[in-house]
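Subject: for your reference before the review

Hello V.,

The reviewers asked for a structural picture of the protein, and I figured it would be easier to keep everything in one thread rather than splitting it across files. Below is the amino acid sequence we used in the manuscript, unchanged from the supplementary table.
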Amino acid sequence: METQIDKLIRLVEDLLDVSKIQAGKLGYRQERVDLDALLHEVADTMQQIEATHTIVVRGATSCSLVGDKDRLGQVFTNLLSNAIPGLGHGLVYCRGNRQTP
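And here is what came back from the structure prediction:
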């Protein structure tokens, strides 16, 4: 299992290679991702960083998808990181719901 440092190294290496991004050749891993597990993992990591807030995951999607786990995790991390400064101190809720089209 990759550590958080390995994930960050991979993301930084990809982001620093501007020519790949501009050429549309940035690689993505295709792996099965348990969305609930990923949300809990991101919330746990963010809780360690943001000690002034309590991050709570509510609900469940009960689904998995095929995608790049590290990049999806980074999206959720960015969403939480952007939400927290506007909240002051307190609770941050991440809620997962499964909706069908």
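For the response letter, the relevant points are probably these. Residues 29-97 form a domain with the Heat Shock Protein 90 fold (CATH 3.30.565.10). The first helix runs from residue 4 to 16.

Happy to draft the paragraph if you're swamped.

O.
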